[in-house]
Amino acid sequence: MTLDLTVNELEQEFQSLKEIEIKVKKTQINAHHKSTINEILGFPWPVAVLMVFMVYEGATNLVFNGEYSLIKKTYTKIINKKPVQWYDKGFALIERGKLEEAIKAYDKAIEINPKHALAWYDKGFALYKLGQLEEAIQAYDKAININPEYAFAWNNKGIALSEMGKREEAIEAYDRAIEINPELAWAWNNKGVQLNKLGQLEEAIKCFEKAIRISPEYTAALSNERTTQKELRNRTK
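Above: the chain's sequence. Below: its structure in token form.
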């Protein structure tokens, strides 16, 4: 039995422990096997799933001999090779404000799968939060190279460019995000902010109004639209 393949098949076949329990009840296996399966269903979800599947695959020697620690060790070795686990760890670390650790986790995910666009994107976000703008843009560019239609990556690239004072380049990035997803109110608002700073007030107002039409409760866009309208009125006096 190839364990890495088994885990992949496992994820497709079983979505929850409840489904496993249903499958166990429907499967014609002897009472001894069924008792063992019911026992191991008490283990943490990933380990329990793996052990149940091993029973189905005939790898009963480890399970029935109580070699649970070996099975857990094997599972951990397999799962640590999966980029999604490192990505999830990185996301959790960002939520806790541990940005440097999050970047290390994303790097592990990227090492396993260099085309993990979401890991590149979130790494860019963590770098941005740390003030490492050039590195953040590089990470966003990696995500975009993998998925050119990644609207959020284009938008966040625009934010980083804006922070660097590269307003025209930022607007180009926002335009690309809007081209991909015209309903991305965030990008419309961000474009409006940069147009305002360039003195293009009427064009900025149009962007804010577009953001508001998409998301009527968008507080930042509502505030920016009012402020820019006032600036325009003062200019024309």
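The mean pLDDT is 75.
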